[in-house]
Specification:
It comes from Litoribacillus peritrichatus. This is SPOR domain-containing protein. This protein is α+β, with helices and mostly antiparallel strands. Helix content is 42%, strand content 27%.
């Protein structure tokens, strides 16, 4: 009976020893993998993951051509570039064309006072009229000039005569058109040689 119990205990101990050895080998294998990862400091990347990395597109310098006075002229210029497989777009801009210089005597408190001053100016043989509408109603107009020096000459003459004349700038705006494209500057000069336009590089905008 004792011999049988001793045999059973010995078998159990052998089984535990085998289980211990197997567990040690498994732990060593996992530790080796972990150390290999830590030493290299980076994980493996699949080929599919590498191909998915975005590549930045190289864009040529952007070019601006203009101003073009009419939409029809801008469309003709657009077609010239399209015939050369250059993509462009027409951009409309509200630009300052010129400035006029208006010499006036500021608005009087009432129409009656404006008319009285007008009569005084006409008796002095000074060309003038009363403004009847807008922000300058009841002002006295002394002339509209395209040359600034001419306006200043009239104003100084009126001030010397005792009138509080001033110069009001009147901006003249107009619509002009530009072509904008992603291309090299040199390729545009021959295309638009017959047009009175400026060709220049500019910052590319997001499309």
């Amino acid at each position: 009976m004792l011999l049988k119990r001793a045999f059973v205990s010995l078998v159990a101990l052998n089984a535990l020893f085998v289980l211990y050895v197997v567990m040690q080998k498994s732990a060593s294998s996992e530790e080796g993998v972990s150390k290999t990862f830590d030493q290299h400091g980076e994980a493996l990347v699949l080929v599919a993951e590498v191909s998915a990395i975005p590549v930045k597109k190289v864009v040529d310098a952007c070019v601006s051509v203009g101003p073009l006075e009419t939409l029809e002229l801008a469309q003709q210029a657009y077609q010239r570039l399209a015939a050369r497989n250059v993509k462009s777009e027409i951009v409309e801009k509200d630009t300052l064309a010129s400035v006029d210089y208006w010499v006036i005597i500021p608005p009087r408190p009432s129409e009656r006072q404006a008319l009285r001053l007008l009569k005084q100016l006409q008796l002095a043989d000074i060309d003038s009229y009363v403004v009847t509408q807008g922000d300058y109603a009841n002002a006295i107009s002394l002339g509209l000039f395209t040359v600034q020096s001419s306006a200043h000459r009239i104003k100084n003459k009126m001030v010397s005569a005792g009138f509080d004349a001033i110069i009001q700038e009147i901006p003249r705006r107009q619509i002009r058109y530009w072509l904008e494209a992603e291309s090299k500057l040199g390729s545009f000069e021959a295309v638009f040689r017959d047009l009175n336009v400026k060709i220049s590089e500019k910052s590319c905008k997001s499309r």
